[in-house]
Design brief:
Length: 286
């Protein structure tokens, strides 16, 4: 059975080497700071988060129809079928713009298969869904069956996030100034999850970061239920020590030694701020 081309956007927050090793094409989203537009890789992660520490408040740029066409059309011209795993429509216009581009291209290339899946996931949650689809492709699963699996299982990717910088959340309009100041003084850390509409929502607050991280692991465990896992992902906003601490908690709790840690990229990091930790795992529910 012929294999298909996988495309995603870099909101997956996977390492560049991962995409290359697994033959995945990537569309880069953008972000604006002080009137300048950047793409992932234009600045190092450290440089980006240092700008946030200095009080910068970036805005983000979705994949537009032209970007999506440019990513998909060369493969169709080459006679390949394409499966595109897109950033959650609950957080970005990227998925809808990609679907519009795909509708145009299907008319122009009627002999090819072109499927766009709105992941309803973000960051390494989207990356985890992609990872599972890659495993299916490597087993010679058809493009239709791989897309159906992604569609059927996207709400089984649990996302739990611990935010650290309340003043950044305030600058982004997500918490009031009073709450940000009071919470910062008390060491309160919001816990956020991804709901079934692919939107990030606050689900609780815990005093102390270590306690908040432990609470996030507890919440993940409740979602996992009887789901069998041999892999999980963690991403961080320039706080690798916290990520490694959570990886140890997860490994002990679930008996899993295989995991991936990477940076939260600038698209998600623009909204969550410095010091954020996010945990992702396949689960019975979110």
């Amino acid at each position: 059975m012929a294999k298909f081309i996988l495309i995603t956007d870099d909101s997956c927050d996977l390492p560049a080497k991962y995409y290359m090793d697994n033959k995945v094409s990537v569309v880069k989203l953008g972000y604006n700071i002080d009137g300048e537009t950047y793409r992932a890789g234009d600045k190092t992660e450290k440089e980006f988060y240092d700008l946030l520490r200095a009080g910068k408040m970036p805005t983000t740029v979705a994949v537009n129809v032209e970007d999506a066409r440019a990513a998909m059309e060369p493969h169709l011209k080459n006679g390949d079928d394409v499966l595109y795993i897109a950033f959650s429509s609950g957080l970005s216009a990227s998925a809808n713009n990609t679907a519009m581009a795909a509708a145009e291209l299907r008319e122009e290339y009627p002999g090819r298969k072109l499927i766009v899946v709105d992941s309803l996931c973000a960051s390494l949650g989207q990356g985890l869904l992609l990872h599972k689809v890659i495993e299916l492709r490597n087993k010679d699963v058809s493009i239709e069956d791989a897309a159906k699996w992604a569609q059927d299982n996207r709400l089984n990717v649990a996302h739990y996030v611990v935010a650290d910088d309340l003043m950044h959340l305030h600058r982004g309009g997500r918490v009031s100034k009073t709450s940000a100041i009071a919470g910062s003084m008390l060491g309160v850390k919001p816990i956020i999850y991804m709901d079934n509409e692919g939107k990030l929502k606050a689900i609780g607050k815990v005093r102390g970061k270590k306690q908040a991280l432990a609470s996030a692991v507890d919440r993940i465990e409740k979602c996992v239920g009887k789901t069998e896992n041999n892999f999980f992902t963690i991403c961080h906003a320039d706080c690798i020590e916290d990520a490694e601490h959570v990886a140890k908690l997860m490994s002990v709790r679930f008996g899993i030694k295989d995991y991936l840690i990477n940076y939260i990229g600038p698209v998600i990091g623009s909204h969550t701020g410095v010091g954020t930790i996010a945990i992702f795992m396949m689960a019975e529910h979110r």
